[in-house]
Fold this sequence. Notes:
Mean pLDDT: 92
Structural class: alpha/beta
Low-confidence stretches: none
Order of helices and strands: EHEHEEHEEEHHEHEHEEEHEEHE
Largest sheet: 6 strands, mixed
Amino acid sequence: MTSNEQTVAYPGREGAHSAAACDRLFPAARLVSHQNFAEVVEAVVRQDCMFGVLPIESSLAGPVNETHDLLYDSPLSIVAEAILPIHHCLVGIAGARVEDLREIRSHPMALDQCRGLLTRLTNATATVAAMTDSAAASVAELGDPTVAAIASARAARLHSLQVLEDDIGDHTAYTRFAALAPYTRLDRRHGVWRTALTFETHHRPGALHFAIAPLAERGIDMVQLVSRPIPSRPFDYRFDCVLGGHPLDDDLAAALAEMRVQTARLRVFGSYRADLEDEGSSTVAA
């Protein structure tokens, strides 16, 4: 890697939705594919790549738990986000017919977002794949007309597959992608900002209420709140949340200081500019 080359790690192959998110976040970067989410995080921690891009939230399926847990266990921070519309396609080899399908492969989240299709195709069994793109690649390699994948049109073109049905999602879907880096942004450029953090409460009545009360007192919007188990402590939970504002804003800084007093542990996951359509920028990592 040359000193001025920007490299970005992402899970899957060129046809993955994460690759499209990389194009939006870092249009001039060299993209480096990895087999899974954990490898993306490891590549950034080792500084093999400058950034990593992972899906973190679906408008239909909710938080992507694996990304939340990897972020919690790593020293990385969120430095940017991109929200992409997700259009699922049913793809198969040339000559395949929907009525003949016996197996449909895809990532669990894509399968969950296409329940109507799976219910309608009663003779087809859903099979979980690591990524939507790897599902498409396996269908192309297998060459069986009774096996199809739920993937993007981009993946279909990449693997020379035929789109059997387009836009098969149950509802209009969007996925929020997070750009991860081994540092935390403190700059405050133009736009609306978000601050991501995780905290653990004390075991006492009203602990969660007391922990987040400073936000309500200062009119700070909680954009997201996710409860996740802590594997090292059975039946203990943490809370990952996203707040409106920048950690150097007076109100948010004061609220975070009070939250640290009211919680057992608090760690900021990063600050970044919100991806809002009305900002008119095609590159959202700036």
